[in-house]
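User: GAF domain-containing protein. Structure?
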Amino acid sequence: MASDPGGESHPLMRRQRELTSLYATAKSLTALGELDEVLRSIVRHAHDLIGTDFTYLSLVGADGRLSARASEGTISASFLAASIPADVGLGGKVLASRSPHWVRDYAAATSIAHDPDFDRVVGLEGLVALLGVPLVIRGEAVGALFAADRSVRSFQAEEIALLSAFADHAAVALDNARLYDASRTALQELRIAYRKIEEHVAVMERAQASHEALTGVVLEGGTPGDVVQLLADQLGGSVTLLDRAGVAVVRGDSAADPCRAPAGDDLAAAFRNAQRSGRCTTSVDDAGVAHSVASIRAGDSFLGALAWSRAAGGDRGVRDDMDVRTLERATHILGLLILKERAVAEASERLSGELLTELMVGSPGASAAQRTRARARNIDVDRLDLVLVADSATLSSTELSRHLHDIARDRAGLAGEHLGRAMMILPSADDDRTVEEVHRRLRRAAGAPVTVVGERAVNQDWARAFSLASRCSAVVRALGHTDLGATTARYALYAMVFDTERVRDLDRFVAGTIGPLLDYDQRRGTDLVGTLDAYYANRANVAATARALHLHVNTLLKRLDRAGELLGVDWRQEDNLELQLGLRLHRLRAVAPGPA
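Assistant: Predicted structure:
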């Protein structure tokens, strides 16, 4: 054992000093503190008391290995990183027996099971003599406290007793530190749980307030747009109502927590997933914006979707989950509002269509009852002076009529179907501008090319105006026009075709230009009219006309010669405009409908 630093040689005096030091050390170790701080303190005090070259403490880890956790006087960094199985080495004997053990020369000792990796570390540290005492907590050996010298020596009973007594106090301090850590961890977890409860209660209160606000909107007769804006104010970010095709109908933005407007592509995939699954889906785009899309359904009918966009990430957690449920509940309310609006619109369209039909089939003018019904809809019959007919190659007349109803409501007019055609009667101060504006709005709503032809009604003769507009619309299609808005005046050149009052003028003009060809074709079953028409359609090019009619050139020339003989004209004269006009009017008369 090391010599007495104070020069004291009397055993009793030395013993008194050791006990006093042990008491003071044990008292300091019982104070609560961090586990690692307690371990370092244990080793430092043990090193001071026992007086060996170095001291270290090892604990049994969750993996069942004994690892050094603190040391005093060591010189090798790898020593603290070493670990051995808890059943080998001197530590294994100490743990198994729960009693002190020592060796004079660790490397040469045959009474212990050696670990090759630890033996290499022992060599680097210069460890020779080693004393170990157990750290026992409530009957369990949780580790060992070691005192080591770098020379061969024996350990005396007093040293063993002193280190053992210190280890007992150290075990108490270690247990206290563990309990302290466990208590502090439990307290921290309790605080976290309490904060989560507070957050959850706040979110629940917020969700309840949102639900009450949404219910209030419905009870007060609010619109889907009101619901969308309320959601944006409550949830933050941006809320968008999408129709059945995924097109944005209305959008609301939060003033306090705005979000950039979502692009169509950002919502397209989420919209399709929500439509397919019927559940709310959430995705995050490349810009870090989260989009939650919930489908709006009524039974098996898909009415559209509700999209909520906001910045992704952060600490939203429970709030986000609850807000998504608020979004889903809002879809039920919107479904009811949409169905209500649809029912009101359908009823309005039905009444509008019925009144329109009565005005169209009756004599010119409106009865007192019809005027009263019109006034109830804020419509002045005396100002309904423009009849419009809409047509499309891709949309049915029913679909077009539905869009025309929306326009008619805004313009104090009537819309519906008449004789299979989509039509509308409107007040108009400038017919050309009115037709163009209706065409532009109808095309945008329909999402496809449409034609709109207008005719002014004279003396409230809406039926005649409808007939002219319908026949002109057929002529427009025959001329190859598929996307325009115009009045019949733009096609005055062809008025004889669609104006029923000029049928005799048309007959005289056609008979005077191509009458002999028509008679000849009727008697002989030929088609000289069609041949000559094709010739002018191909810009008087014989070869092109022959290819178009699948005829040999000689056959075509014979037909053209016969036509020239019958008409008394030279078909080789390309500028025969009167003949060409007669052929075109005859062709257009075939496609224009008869008098309505």
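The chain has four domains: 16-182, 224-342, 362-497, 503-590. The radius of gyration is 50 Å.
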